[in-house]
Amino acid sequence: METAKNRSFSDMGVMLGRSIRHVFRSMDTIITVCITPIAMMLLFVYVFGGAIDTGTDNYVNYLLPGILLIAIASGISYTAYRLFLDKQRGIIERFHTMPIARSAVLWGHVLTSLVSNALSVFIIILVALLMGFRSSAGILSWLAVAGILMLFTLALTWIAAIAGLSAKSVEGASAFSYPLIFLPFISSAFVPTESMPLVVRVFAENQPVTPIVSAIRALLASQPVSNDIWIALAWCLGILIVAYIFAIRAYKRTSSA
C-alpha cells in the first residue's frame, strides 16, 4: 500500500512538472493574468480613489484583497483551458493507457493552478508595494492570508476543472470565469457595502467574496477579524467540496468515454 501511495505522489509530481513547464514556456499566461488586475488597481487608486470614501487613508490597502481575488478568478480560467485541450487532443486517454495513477493527471493541473496563481499574487503584491501598500501584519497573519488565498484558489480551480472537462469548445471552457471575475465588484472589495442600494447591499453582504475580502483586509491591517474569517473559510470549504465532487464525476466520465 505504501508503495502505491509513493508511486501516486511520484506520478503527481511528474504531471505537475509537465504542466508547470507549459506555463513557463508561455509566460504570457502569467503576464495576461496580472495585467488586468494591476491596470484596475492603478485605475481605481489614481483615477477613482479620491472620489471613493472608504474611511481609510490608504486606498491601496483597502483595494488589494479584492484585486488578488480577481487575479485568481482570472488565472483559473487557464486551468480549464489546458484541461480542455488535454481532453480534446486525447492526451488524458493516452496517459490512462500508461502505468501511472489516473488521478495524477487531474491533480497535476490543480497543483499547477496553485503555483501559477501564487506567482501572480506575488507579482501584484510587489506592484501594490510600489503604489504605497503597507501592512503591519506579522508572520502568522501573513500565513493566514496565504492559507485563505490558497483555499480560495483550490475552490475555484475545482470549478475550473468541471468546466474544462465538460465544455464542448475552447470558449465554453474559459467563459465560466467571467461571473467569478465580476463577483468582487458586487462586494466590499472596492467600496463599503453601506453605500450600496438595499437590494445590492443584501446580495453583497451575503456572497462569498465580502467575508473573504474583509478577513484578508483585517489580517493585513492587524485588526480583529471577528467572524469574517470563519465565514470565509466556510464558503471556501463548501465550494471546494461541492466542486471537487462534481469535478471527479466529470473526470470519471472523461476517463470512461
TrEMBL record:
The source organism is Paenibacillus campinasensis
InterPro entries (UniProt xref): ABC2_TM (IPR013525), ABC2_TM_bact-type (IPR047817), ABC_2_transport (IPR000412), Nod_factor_ABC_transporter (IPR051784)
Instruction: State the family it belongs to.
Output: Belongs to the ABC-2 integral membrane protein family.
Ranges where the ABC transmembrane type-2 domain occurs: 28-254
Record flagged with keyword Transmembrane: yes
Q: Which UniProt keywords apply?
A: Cell membrane, Membrane, Transmembrane, Transmembrane helix, Transport
- Membrane-spanning residues where? 30-50, 62-84, 105-133, 139-163, 175-193, 229-251
Q: How does it sit in the membrane?
A: Multi-pass membrane protein
Kindly name one Pfam family recorded for this protein. Answer: ABC2_membrane
This chain's protein is named Transport permease protein
Q: What is the lineage of its organism?
A: Bacteria, Bacillati, Bacillota, Bacilli, Bacillales
Localization in the cell: Cell membrane; Membrane
Q: Decide whether keyword Transmembrane is in the record.
A: yes
